[in-house]
User: What shape does this take?
Amino acid sequence: MHFFRNYPATGSIRNVKTDQMVAGYFLNFTFMNTEQINTFYFSPTGTTETILNNLAANFPAVKICNFNLTLPGTSNKPEPIDSSSLSIVGMPVYSGRLPMEAIRRFETINGNQSLAIVIVVYGNREFDDALLELTELAQKANFRVIAAAAFVGEHSYSTTDRPIAHSRPDQQDLNHIATFADLVRKKLDETELKNAASTIQVPGNRPFVERKQYPLIIPETSHADCTQCGLCVECCPTGAINLEDEIVTDPEKCIWCCACVKKCPEQARHFDHEIIQSIRERLFTNCRERKEPQFYL
Assistant: This one.
């Protein structure tokens, strides 16, 4: 675990009602036992959602509101966000960047100068510029980012015979999540509100790593095993899958997230194109050493 701290130790917040003038907004904070916590996540395979839910559970709050931005047509965002709430924003890393679908859906949200924690989840390779990208995305959406972290989750291309960060987050990761929550609460306890978001520094480069252009390949369906239950249609974050006489996938819309592969109850969806097999083998060979979460406060 790597922990980076760049903040002064002054003031007190948790369990204390405090009025502060921050960036032109008059905010009434009641941390941490009585305020609302929001989670915003794009999580096709459910890994990012799991990490955010576990993190949110480590903050005492009267109310936790989960806003799932994964599926197309997502519109269950709060209007407006309570300026005294704390939000946790999480997205997966795809080749060092955030998914464009996640960015577009999150851009409709206005943070109303509320505090936020940003989380990226990657498959034990690298998170590259994604954490910086998410930090700046949240700031642009009018959130005041007070902490950031990169956690490891099982890679979307992981299989039984080629496991990549298999079964992560595991118990060690859950312990790190609890530690991170403690550090965030400590920062809120020791830092004046006006300084809470001004001290965070996260790694990354500008311009961000260039987005890769993927060939038009898709997961395939074993029609002998498929029961046409429609779950793959329901879980696809881009609406790329349709159930006609058989399962049909639009290669123009597929983002290779593998939600349909991971969630098929019959294991009838497979992503074994030679390009994916090559990537999977490279990750399996080169990314075996366990990486631990990195925290930035």
Summary: The chain has a mean pLDDT of 86. The two ends are 14 Å apart (CA to CA). The chain has eight helices and 13 strands.
